[in-house]
Amino acid sequence: MATGGDGYSYRSTIERRVQRGVSVERKRIGVLVVAYNASSTLAKVLDRIPRDFVHRIDSVLICDNASEDSTYLVGLGYKQVCGDLPITVLRQPRNLGYGGNQKTGYQWAIDEDLDIVVLLHADGQYAPELLPEIVAPLERGEADAVFGSRMMNRGDALRGGMPLYKYVGNRILTTVENSLVGMDLSEWHSGYRAYSVATLREVPFTRLSDDYDFDTGIILQLHEAGKRIVELPIPTFYGDEISYVNGVRYAKDIVREVLRYRAHKAGLGTGETAFATPAAEWEQGTEATQTRIIAWLAPRPASRILDLACGDGALGARLRRCGHQVVGVDAEERPGVADRLDKFVAADVDQGIPADVGDGFDTVIVGHALEEVRDPERLLADVRRLMQPHGTAIVAVSNFAHWYPRVRTVAGRFDYDRQGILDRSHLRFFTRRSFERLARDTGFSARRRAVSGVPFETLPPPLTRAGARARRCAQLTDRFGATTWPSLFGFELLYELDPARPC
Predict the structure, then answer these.
(1) What is the CATH number of domain 279-498?
(2) Closest by Cα among 379, 494, 480, 382 to 432
(3) Which stretch of DSSP H or E encloses residue 214?
(4) 22 vs 25, 28, 53, 54, CA distance in Å?
(5) In this structure, which of 196, 222, 296, 395 has its CB flanked by the most CB atoms within 10 Å?
(6) What is the pLDDT of residues 17-67, one digit of tens each?
(7) Would you say 188 and 216 are in contact if contact means Cβ atoms under 8 Å apart?
């Protein structure tokens, strides 16, 4: 456990504010000073905090990351001689890494019930004089996070002493990150930041790396959660401080982080970085699968359709606009689903299809429900019973023989994901061969088949021409693979099944 430099508490904060006559309704501001071997610069950084801003600060945490010099003692000494700053000094018993040190500080801000926390570096690279400007958008409720950017004003970074190789690397990595994630930040690599503490409570920042790529990870989390980020221009200061960042390793780590995020958005990987993406959107398949279903059914005369595992009813709503009558079934009634369909029935199809859905359907859409039941044979038998003699069933299944689960299995890293092929809700997995055998065994034959590749449409649009070309190339390559070798490159398999033909 980290050791504290004093007994500063939330109660003492309130008492000081009452003594000063400050309204308890104002935002409670904390400053997290991350420090490592900063004995020569820490006091100077604290001295530069504007005197007319000091009274607005509720708490300052100096978080010494097991420095090898006297940083901790300098912090304690500054606390003794400067009584106007409410300082707490913490020394980590071991070095937790740049990200790990921030995690301690943000948890402190949450525990102290602060409203705003500012990240300030003890080495003097970022200007404490701009603290009022950094917190202003948060105080006005215009942002969930504010980032100081050294790149907003052209040329400022180089004039401030940023080494050319760092400047070029910063610009290249920021361009790559914006393109891969679908954002438009002027800089991803500034360490001058302020966060709404309420926002920190909502994002799982403790899951992030303890290393320097923590800052990239938290941007991804803010983006995934739909939070508002505001950038402000800040000056650049480079002095004699020692950099502890391995540039090549740092670049590799952050590129890996953003690629992992994109993969999770596409249903490849654990999905933990895409934590705010509704898993339910996969129940009816990807956009490519839904579009194919619409193309198959739209030209037909008005008909009765049963949509099993209908999710939020988006697919059913599109079919209704084509003139069809749609009854939806799902275990959970999501907001607005009853308004999008002609009829909605709340039921878990793993327990069977309830009688009150009716029968005599021209088409039954099974979506991915077949993977989420313990007895898919029984479900297909129920589907056939509810269909007209001339009716059809449309079934979508994820392809377990796709290269992604194959690689995961061969590497000994098989596990369930949040969505996609290895969706944690799946009880059964299918390959092309095993599903077609199941269809034959339950009295169906395939009227037609389709296959779709990796769902690129779930990813953000590229922001650069190079990114757009790379994405187009990847799509064409994946589409070619899915067409020529569907068992290996097919991400989703879609079938229209006909019970009228003999097996």
Answers:
(1) 3.40.50.150
(2) 494
(3) helix 214-224
(4) 9, 11, 13, 13
(5) 395
(6) 444 444 435 899 999 999 999 999 999 999 999 999 999 999 999 999 999
(7) yes
